[in-house]
Structure formats: structure tokens, C-alpha cells
């Protein structure tokens, strides 16, 4: 079992609820997981982890949050080659095109994408269950 970091940004609490659910999923396999808001985490800490769950909602024109998360992820993706990664986030419009672009970008970085979960607005029971599964699947992959 490897060590897992869950790194997220949340403006309304929706993606934070998803982050807590992925942590619960990881904890069903191992307790070796740390939860960070993106401003508490930096790329130089990534070498201490074996897998990542990244969470960010759709913002603006279906993009990652631009002030904190996007600059972090732009640097982080340079270190993801061969690393197990899961993605999650909420959206309020647009049907989730930001996630499709984020998935493609993560794969292009060479990450071993375990999966992705989206929720329209506040995550419902199904989205929470999918987040828990994503956390469990990632924990089993590291």
C-alpha cells in the first residue's frame, strides 16, 4: 500500500463533500491518506505520495479554478507520469465538459487515470458512493 494525497479546491462546499467521500473510500483500504486544500499543498510535497485524488469544480467557461488550482495542477502534471490519479468535482452548468478536458490532460501527462466522478451542484447519494468507490479503487491501485 502506498501513501495517497487528496488535494482539492472548493468554493461552495460541494467539491469538499466529494473530497471527504473519496477519503472515506481510501480509508476503507488504508489509513495512509492525507487531505489538503490546494493552498495547503505544493508540488514539492508530491514526491512523498504514491497516488493522488484531485478535486476541482468547473468554473467560468468550464475550466479549473484559475487562481489556485490551475497554477498548482499545471506544475503537478509534470510529475504525474506513471502515477495513479483520480479526478472529481462538481459543476452547475455545461454538462461536465471541464472534466472531459481534465481527464484528457491528465492522461496526456502520463498518469494512470483510475477514474473520475462529477456531480451536478451538491453531490447526491450516488455521487458520494461513486466518490467512495474512486477512493477505494485508487487505494487498491497504489
Structure commentary:
This protein is α/β, with parallel strands linked by helices. It has a single domain (4-141), classed as 3-Layer(aba) Sandwich (Rossmann fold), CATH 3.40.50. The chain has four helices and five strands. The protein has helices spanning 14-27, 69-76, 97-108, 125-141, and strands at residues 4-8, 33-37, 51-55, 84-91, 112-120. A five-stranded parallel β-sheet has the order 2-1-3-4-5, with helices on both faces. The longest helix has 17 residues, at 125-141.
Averaged pLDDT: 95
What coarse outline follows from CA principal-axis ratios?
Answer: globular
Radius of gyration: 13 Å
Q: CATH H-level name... which superfamily?
A: Flavodoxin domain
> What would you say the CATH architecture is?
3-Layer(aba) Sandwich
Beta-strand share of residues = 15-25%
Helix-and-strand structural type: alpha/beta
N-to-C CA distance: 6 Å
Q: Which regions contain 5 or more consecutive residues with pLDDT less than 50?
A: none
- The number of helical segments is 4
